[in-house]
Amino acid sequence: MRWINKFNLPDPVVKAVQRDNYNPGKSDVTVTRLVLPPRVAVLQEIHREHIVEDISDGFFRMLGKCVHKLLEENDADTDAIVERRLYSAERLQGLIVSGQLDRYELKTHTIQDYKFTTCYSAQNGAKSEWVGQLNLLALLARENGFPVENLELILLLRDYSKTQGERTPNYPPSPVLRVPVELFSEEKAEWYLNSRLQAYISAKSNLPVCSPEDQWRRPAVFAVLKPGGKRAVRLFDSEEEACAYAEAAGSNLSVQKRCGTSIRCESYCSVAPWCDQYQREKASAVEE
User: Fold this and answer.
1) What are the phi and psi torsion angles at 70 (to 5°)?
2) How confident is the model at residue 246 (pLDDT cuts 50, 70, 90)?
């Protein structure tokens, strides 16, 4: 990966963002990579040397690493195992799989995983990739002699606002949240692991398409607007409902279609420039 610094951020920030101590150990694939959409995981490997990222885009990831390190340093005297990498005992479909525990509580047999994320993510519950990652870690933990009875996300909300929390329904009550996660049965976890391995291996020879869920797809909506206005009076899922509302209001309102967006592809996927699926969808949206 190549870094750029388009905002001319100072050297200490640049060096901190670029510093990367990540080490997957002697594994062929990690659980973090397995829970990615297979298309994304494989394209990242193919274009690793071509990916360009701005220092500003890596800033929150750097802060997350700092928080992880601070929490690890203050966990030394507790009944917990922290930052331990675990490996599959044998090759699975030809691959050694590894995953790193953020924290494992010895007394309660609980795996905790820290996520430095946003309030929006917290309001929408645990992402399917987070649930999958924790359950793959649980499978590796059991294989390495650590019983698992509970899974838990510790969400660290980087954009938390106390004042917004006082006036916004369903807003997170605290900048740090404990979110329990469903623990799969061993049979379900093994099925999930094998299915992710098969998808990852197959993608190396035949790239699948990303699903709407993979793309964090928001569907198209129809906005009702005041004359000359840009902010919608109301949003509707269907054009018929929007037109009916505008006609009933009798205020010379207009209806505008707002195309669906793929949030991950547009803003968070490092390999979007090399993804033919996304490039086709983007071209199609322009034509509409």
Assistant:
1) -65, -45
2) confident
